[in-house]
Amino acid sequence: MVEEKKVVKFGGSSLASGAQFVKVKGIVDADEARRYVVPSAPGKRSSSDHKITDLLYMCQQLASHGLNFDEVFHLISDRYIGIRDELNLDVNIESILEQVKTRIRDGASKDYAASRGEYINGILLAAYLDFPFVDAVEVIRFKDNGDFDEHTTEKLVHSILGSVERAVVPGFYGAKVNGEIVTFSRGGSDITGSILTNGIQASLYENYTDVSGFLMADPKLVDNPRPMDLVTYRELRELSYMGAPVLHEEAIFPVRKRGIPIQIKNTNEPDAPGTLIVHDQWNQVKEGTITGISGKKDFTVISVEKTLMNNEHGFFRKLISVFETNDVSIEHMPSSIDSISVIVPDADLKGKQQKVIEEIKIYCNPDTIYSNPGMALLAVVGRGMVKTKGISAKIFHALASKGVNIRMISQGSSEINIIIGIENRDFEEAIKAIYEAFQ
After folding, report:
1. Which residues pair with 302 in a beta bridge?
2. Which of 7, 154, 238, 300 is buried most, with the most CB atoms less than 10 Å from its CB?
3. Percent helix, strand, coil in the chain (nearest 5)?
4. CB-based contact 96:138 (threshold 8 Å)
5. Contact between residue 395 and residue 434 where contact means Cβ atoms under 8 Å apart
6. What average pLDDT does the structure give for the chain?
7. In the prediction, which pLDDT does 400 show?
8. Where in 144-240 does DSSP place strands (E)?
């Protein structure tokens, strides 16, 4: 029988204080399979508090300008010493902090400074759990150009973690062959956990945070939205792409290729079911339902009309090249026989709109071209929509009943999402209307 192994990642709020460390230990001790633990740096203890990573970035920035950062670093030291003392740990944290402070004063990189939040927290957590501490520089490898080295990392994880029964491995960073620290983007501890899960071929990746799973809609717009009990990788990508605050999207890919599930749980409510993220081929589907709703505001629609557009070779290539050369990303391109609408973020188009329109006139010679700003995009996502009659009608009826004018409709070939374009001013009302229609 193969021994079950789980990787467990704890976010910053889960490790913000000694009291939170106690909760984490209770969770780890409750399941023998939780053998590899990935900590983030301490987060905020209250709304007026500071994240340790932010303070470390500030120290490095001050030091790079030759300015004194003692006062800021004192806040960092106090937090770690407080956690150590609260848990009665035998760790010489003062010496470690002094080494970090000296390195930052001597010109350490931004990546080095930021990574020390997870590094020090990992040392404390390893001591508290009585687990071996494995520094991420030993198992997470980056190439000389700063890109993540997936192949080498997978071999290191398999070799090094395969030789220890349990370990704490700090998240967010790794190193090049020469030892230079490199960090992932913010939220990168999620990525570390996923990489380790893939490398040791664990049965489950548990990601503990301060919410009990993902919600069907933004709680700022919908009162007490229901949590998603189960969501596929693909659905999650669709929701994340359209602005839903979900898991760091790069954290999905390492486990996705092996089909390893991710369980999102709440450190403060560990018995809550949370959200299970599963492989796209998962066979449990609730027909006639949606999984979630997300969306973003502030898009501009540039509409181009030209008779016999579909017969003109190279038309679409020339049109797209205008946006590409002006560094404007395209979100969607709904079209008909003689017209096409290009939907782009207002932020990308800022200061470039007239230039883009003029270039389209030159290269594409359209009959007419016009733009409409102030558009929002909604994504209604769910495998339960596939081949289910009446889903679209239900969505559109809900919007019509609230007086929301639909400007655009687009459904992907997979049928797991419907993109709807509406006016910015109708955004909040539209989210509420669709959510209520499926309750």
Report:
1. 342, 371
2. 7
3. 40, 20, 35
4. no
5. yes
6. 90
7. 93
8. 167-168, 173-175, 181-183, 204-209, 230-232
- Residue ranges in the chain modelled with pLDDT below 50: 1-2
Q: 347: which residues sit within 8 A by CB, 6+ positions away? A: 298
User: Which H or E element spans position 322?
Assistant: helix 315-325
Q: Judge contact between 295 and 431, C-beta under 8 A.
A: yes
- Contacts of residue 381, Cβ cutoff 8 Å, sequence gap at least 6: 235, 238, 239, 290, 291, 292, 293, 294, 416, 417
Residue type, 200: I
Q: Rounded distance, CA 435 to CA 224, Å?
A: 11
pLDDT of residue 288: 60
Find tokens 């109708």 and name the residue.
426
Three-state DSSP at 356 gives helix
pLDDT digits (tens, 9 = 90+) for 214-268: 888 888 889 888 888 888 888 877 787 666 665 666 777 788 878 899 999 999 9
Q: Give the CA distances from residue 227 to residues 204, 230, 276, 277, 333, in Å, rounded to whole numbers and listed in that order.
A: 20, 9, 11, 13, 32
The residue count for the chain: 439
At 132, give phi and psi (nearest 5°). Answer: -65, 145
Select from 170, 176, 172 the least CA-distant residue to 149.
176
- 8 Å CB contact between 402 and 430: yes
